[in-house]
User: Which sequence fits this backbone?
């Protein structure tokens, strides 16, 4: 079967980088086969999901300000429908991890991720979120958020320019387009594996007092 | 119904009813009609909501020197459709330590309240789901169910932010219900009837905002302020003040339950505008001037549905304009505004209206 | 200075003096409280700039920097203790309100317990953190303090060590909140906290009774990181503290190192630096106006103010090559010469600026709802501003003329004519209007700088590996949000022995509890917004 070229927001296929990744993902997903009705329903759902990405208002440092700029008139993420920033994680679709995550923030951050409703996505935005960045050697900085939550897209830069952020969210929406909602192997499996490998113990009773 | 506009839905409805009765028992016909109306209502409801979401997003974008959604579909027309698809299949998070029944019930209460209000709005010439003698009263009664949903949502979530949001909402809506009620009452005094059809009919030659002049204008301004507060929109959006209470009373809701709140918010905006249209701007009635027959006829070529929706959209635009211009009030200032200013003015205005009706100091004819 | 030294030595014979740019008084711990009290009450040193915790290996201790709001003179006091296992120093928290927070910071980093401080918890790190990270013998092994995804341990009690009348010291654990307080947790993830700050707020209905501020959700350990880097390398962290005052902070650190190394900065570079400072001030205040109004619900303002900010960023980008983290000022000058379009672009900006400011005033400042929300909300008195060390536009809103550009002028500021914007109301409205007015002052400064921009070198020759002589230096500059201070101590190596950054954000967040009591929850957002703290700036 011929591979459909996945593209988003009207950009030509050639304008995308990392196409091999998306194609590999598609081949993997196709192996399980699909039926026509479910397939077209999937398409409809993925169209909805990939075009309606609501971010969580979450920012810790410099990258967050660039995220504000992204919402402002010049870069205007509203064009793509991303401007409905929800302050409650229950209503958001993806989390732009804009800024450094430090030891003390890690549990809070992980909880925010757990509070997001499925389907949820994470973009590691900026070098701090990717690896710890300039603060990697510090005693109090987590060395990348990959060990804390599963990450969908990495957006490098310190801080990334708003254009780079737009590109990273577009990549996310492409990734969503090749997903499966009904049946077959989908990314939820990976997520489950990840969460099984990084469990949270119930330590409600651990508070001192 | 007389022929004020080229479209007249009452004849259509009569024809349909007779046709159904011809080949099925009347109880079946009635059931079928109810069913059709229900489906149609829900359809209109969702389409309107989607339109309103996009409408606001576009308007606020233009206020803010931006473009707004423009990638999904032509001019971004399908943006809110995509949002709705996504919200429909988004996970409904089940929470522990909450009152599950009330938690699930609350969004339905909110949405049912606004659907019920739809029933009495005069959509067009003869296009009204029920037209009975206490239409306005029914409308007021239904719209106040919504606050119950909000209170329940805030309380049952077992979350401090939602609780504060719900408390604010309770205080706010109960207070502003008074102003909405009194300003509507002012107009009911003038119209002399609570029948929605008759109120529209009475505005054939003069919309009430013109015929009842000063008191109607005052009532309209108060109604707009109180109506904005009733719909929890800025500058009265305290119950869901983003920067104070994360998302207010619906912080814990996800998926379609949140979608219901989201839709109901916009639909309430439409209902408030619709009622304003009905009471002050003649409902579906075209702009007519007594005696100018040619002009009236030309106006009549515009379908009544367009008249109604157009007026409602313009009034909604004003309410959206408020939101994107003014900063939010504080809870005490909000209550001060209602109890110390709006309410006394309203009462005086009511007395003024009574005086005007008694003395006959208005233009045109009253409906009798 | 001689007078002061004489006076101190008369009252405190055990004090030892080190002459220098700033007088340093060595005093034993027992006399510290008395000395600081004398300095505050009799000599007019009413403003505690900072408490620098120090580990001299042989001893632990603190250096206090004090200054006077009238005579603008600095004095520093040094206290040491040789006990490394259980170090104790007397607290001065009853003399300066801000000292309580600064002492908590020192305790967090060095484990020095301040006797009589009523609230001796860790400030930035978790309560179960092992070790004191800024001590020289700190074990940075990640296995000791692993990244944990489990909930942070939390306590409702604080620690305090109280000196009894007989001289013994007793450890007590009082409650932070009352038993039946309704405590709402605002933050760390909350749209109004401007980042990751956490307020545990006891409320009665909508009225705030007490706020307990939790910081450290973005504590990145910059001061410790600097100790392992060469002087040139420490500079880039300045971009990432208060990312709006990147140029100003760079400027401050450069000045401190240049002062220590005796580097002469070419005049062109000085003028360029000041121009960049003022441009960032405009951008920063614009963003403040926008986000502040957004917090109050007037979202549209954000887009209008960001328009100007984007214009400033364009100018910066052309010259510095980045939108936010510029790393532009370097030792001896600046990294690159100005872009050829720079002057034209700045002139274009200055032209539209007054029009924009007028628009902001029309849209927001004059609005009756805005007025009601801001007027008499969060009033900070003049004395409290000094005691809490609130500097910058917020301090000047309380009638305290604390602009470092005027009080301790640096670079080319002495040659420039501008007014300090001072208001006396001390409420949120004054803090807001101060910032709006400062945009126009910055415009005036920029106009003068454009006139006086000389030709010449933009950077002096500086050795690649810079070593500072043994000693310590202190430098203050005016950031966009207030006084930014740098304390450098060098042992003669190519990297700082101790680099302490004094940021305006920490006091601004600490004072929120004081000025929100009795106000509404909505006012907390107003007050927090008007104090204009940047969380990475306070956490460092």
Assistant:
């Amino acid at each position: 079967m011929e591979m459909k070229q996945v593209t988003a927001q009207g950009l030509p296929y050639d304008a995308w980088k990392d196409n091999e990744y998306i194609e590999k993902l598609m081949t993997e997903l196709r192996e399980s086969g699909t039926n026509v009705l479910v397939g077209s329903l999937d398409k409809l759902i993925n169209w909805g999901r990939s075009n309606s990405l609501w971010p969580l208002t979450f920012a810790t440092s410099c990258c967050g300000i660039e995220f504000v700029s992204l919402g402002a008139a010049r870069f205007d993420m509203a064009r793509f429908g991303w401007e409905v920033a929800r302050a409650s994680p229950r209503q958001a679709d993806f989390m732009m991890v804009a800024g450094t995550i430090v030891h003390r923030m890690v549990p809070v951050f992980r909880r925010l991720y757990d509070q997001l409703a499925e389907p949820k996505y994470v973009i590691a935005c900026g070098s701090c979120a990717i690896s710890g960045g300039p603060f990697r050697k510090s005693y109090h900085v987590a060395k990348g958020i990959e060990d804390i939550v599963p990450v969908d897209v990495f957006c490098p830069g310190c801080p990334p320019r708003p254009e780079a952020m737009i590109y990273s969210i577009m990549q996310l929406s492409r990734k969503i387009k090749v997903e499966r909602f009904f049946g077959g192997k989908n990314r939820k499996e990976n997520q489950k594996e990840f969460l099984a490998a990084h469990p949270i113990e119930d330590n409600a009773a651990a508070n001192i007092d | 119904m007389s022929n004020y506009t080229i479209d007249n839905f009452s004849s259509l409805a009569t024809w349909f009813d007779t046709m159904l009765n011809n080949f099925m028992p009347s109880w079946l016909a009635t059931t079928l009609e109810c069913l059709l109306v229900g489906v149609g209502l829900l359809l209109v409801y969702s389409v309107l909501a989607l339109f309103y979401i996009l409408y606001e997003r576009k308007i606020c974008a233009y206020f803010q020197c931006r473009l707004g959604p423009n990638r999904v579909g032509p001019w971004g027309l399908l943006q809110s459709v995509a949002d709705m698809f996504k919200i429909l299949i988004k996970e409904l998070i089940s929470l522990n330590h909450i009152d599950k029944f009330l938690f699930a019930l609350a969004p339905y209460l909110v949405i049912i309240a606004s659907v019920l209000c739809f029933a009495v709005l005069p959509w067009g010439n003869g296009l009204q789901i029920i037209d009975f003698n206490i239409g306005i009263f029914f409308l007021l009664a239904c719209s106040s169910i919504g606050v119950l949903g909000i209170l329940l949502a805030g309380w049952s979530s077992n979350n401090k932010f939602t609780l504060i949001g719900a408390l604010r909402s309770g205080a706010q809506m109960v207070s502003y219900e008074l102003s909405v009620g009194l300003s509507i009452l002012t107009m009911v005094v003038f119209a002399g009837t609570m029948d929605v059809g008759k109120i529209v009919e009475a505005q054939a030659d003069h919309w009430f905002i013109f015929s009842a002049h000063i008191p109607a204008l005052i009532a309209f301004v108060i109604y707009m302020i109180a109506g904005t507060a009733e719909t929890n929109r800025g500058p009265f959006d305290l119950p869901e003040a983003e920067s104070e209470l994360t998302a207010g009373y619906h912080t814990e809701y996800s998926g379609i339950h949140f979608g219901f709140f989201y839709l109901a918010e916009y639909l309430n905006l439409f209902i408030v505008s619709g009622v304003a249209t009905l009471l002050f701007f003649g409902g579906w009635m075209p702009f007519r001037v007594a005696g100018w027959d040619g002009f009236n006829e030309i106006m009549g070529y515009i379908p009544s549905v367009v008249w109604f929706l157009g007026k409602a959209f313009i009034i909604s635009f004003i309410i959206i304009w408020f939101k994107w211009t003014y900063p939010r009030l504080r809870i005490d200032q909000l209550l001060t505004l209602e109890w110390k200013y709006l309410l006394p003015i309203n009462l005086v205005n009511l007395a003024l209206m009574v005086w005007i009706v008694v003395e006959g100091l208005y233009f045109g004819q009253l409906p009798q | 200075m001689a007078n002061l030294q004489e006076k101190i030595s008369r009252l405190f014979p055990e004090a030892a003096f080190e002459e220098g740019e700033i007088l340093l008084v060595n005093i034993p711990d027992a006399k510290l409280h008395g000395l600081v009290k004398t300095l505050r009450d009799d000599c007019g040193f009413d403003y505690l700039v900072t408490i620098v915790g120090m580990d001299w290996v042989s001893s632990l201790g603190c250096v206090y920097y004090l200054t006077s709001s009238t005579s603008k003179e600095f004095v520093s006091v040094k206290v040491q203790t040789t006990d490394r296992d259980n170090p104790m120093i007397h607290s001065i928290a009853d003399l300066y309100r801000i000292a309580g927070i600064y002492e908590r910071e020192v305790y967090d980093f060095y484990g020095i317990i301040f006797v009589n401080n009523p609230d001796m918890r860790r400030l930035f790190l978790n309560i179960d953190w092992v070790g004191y990270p800024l001590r020289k013998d700190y074990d940075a092994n990640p296995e000791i303090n692993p990244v944990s995804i489990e909930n942070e341990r939390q306590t409702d009690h604080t620690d305090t060590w109280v000196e009894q009348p007989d001289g013994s010291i007793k450890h007590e654990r009082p409650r932070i909140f009352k038993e039946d307080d309704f405590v709402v947790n605002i933050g760390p993830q909350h749209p109004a906290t401007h980042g990751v700050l956490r307020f545990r707020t006891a409320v009665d209905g909508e009225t705030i009774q007490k706020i307990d501020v939790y910081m450290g959700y973005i504590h990145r350990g910059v001061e410790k990181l600097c100790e392992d880097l060469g002087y040139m390398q420490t500079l880039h962290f300045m971009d990432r503290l208060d990312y709006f005052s990147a140029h100003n902070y760079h400027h401050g650190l450069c000045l401190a190192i240049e002062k220590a190394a005796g580097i002469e900065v070419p005049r062109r570079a000085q003028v360029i630096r000041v121009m960049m400072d003022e441009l960032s001030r405009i951008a920063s205040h614009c963003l403040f106006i926008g986000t502040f109004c957004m917090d109050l619900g007037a979202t549209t303002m954000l887009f209008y103010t960001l328009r100007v900010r984007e214009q400033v960023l364009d100018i910066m980008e052309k010259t510095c090559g980045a939108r936010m983290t510029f790393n532009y000022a370097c030792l001896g000058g600046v990294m690159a010469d100005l872009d050829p379009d720079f002057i034209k672009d700045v002139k274009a900006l200055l032209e539209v600026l007054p029009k924009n400011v007028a628009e902001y005033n029309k849209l927001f400042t004059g609005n009756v709802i805005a007025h009601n929300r801001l007027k008499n909300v969060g009033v900070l008195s003049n004395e409290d501003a000094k005691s809490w060390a609130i500097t910058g536009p917020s301090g000047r809103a309380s009638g305290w003329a604390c602009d470092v550009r005027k009080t301790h002028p640096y670079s080319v500021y002495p040659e420039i004519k501008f007014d300090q914007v001072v208001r006396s109301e001390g409420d949120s409205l004054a803090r807001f209007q101060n910032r709006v007015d400062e945009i126009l002052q910055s415009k005036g400064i920029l106009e003068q700088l454009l006139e006086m921009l000389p030709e010449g070198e933009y950077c002096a020759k500086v050795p690649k590996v810079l070593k500072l002589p043994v000693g310590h230096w202190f430098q203050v500059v005016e950031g966009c949000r207030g006084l930014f201070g740098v304390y450098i101590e060098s042992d003669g190596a190519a990297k700082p022995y101790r680099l302490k950054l004094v940021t305006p954000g920490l006091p601004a967040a600490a004072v929120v509890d004081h000025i929100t009591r009795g106000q509404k929850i909505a006012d907390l957002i107003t007050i927090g917004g008007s104090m204009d703290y940047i969380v990475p700036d306070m956490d460092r």
